[in-house]
Amino acid sequence: VVKYAIVTQFESAGSGDAEVAFASSFANSVIPVLSHYDATSALRVLNNMVPADEFQIMVPDGPQAVADAFLSVADDFNIQCEYIGKSYEVDACMNYKSVLKGSSASKNSYIHAWILLGTVGITLLL
Questions:
Q1: What pTM does this model have?
Q2: What is the Rg, in whole angstroms, of the alpha carbon atoms belonging to the chain?
Q3: What letter would DSSP give residue 56?
Q4: Does the pLDDT at position 98 exceed 50?
C-alpha cells in the first residue's frame, strides 16, 4: 500500500492508470483489518488511497501519512516499523512511538499481521 501511495501521489483517480487501480485494490484489502484495530488509521488510508470520485487526486495527505497510518497497529501485530517500509520519500519509523503491549497479543493479532505483511510484500513485488 505504501509503495502505491508513493507512485500514485498527485495522480487523478480517473486517469485510467493501472497503478491507481492497484492502489485502491490493495488499500481496500487492508482497510477492514486496520479498522478492527484503529478506525482513524483505516479512515486515513481510505481517504488517501480509495478515491470517492474520478476527479479526486490520489494521496492528498502524502505517502508519509499513509505509512504512519500503519504505525498505530504495528504494536498490535507485534511488528517493527521497519517492516512497514522505507524509501527515499517515506520512512515508516520516522514517527513511530512504541506502545509495548507485553505478552497480551492474541493469536488473531499474529494472523492479521501475517495477512497484512503478506499483502504489503506482494505489493512490493509488483
A1: 0.75
A2: 14
A3: P
A4: yes
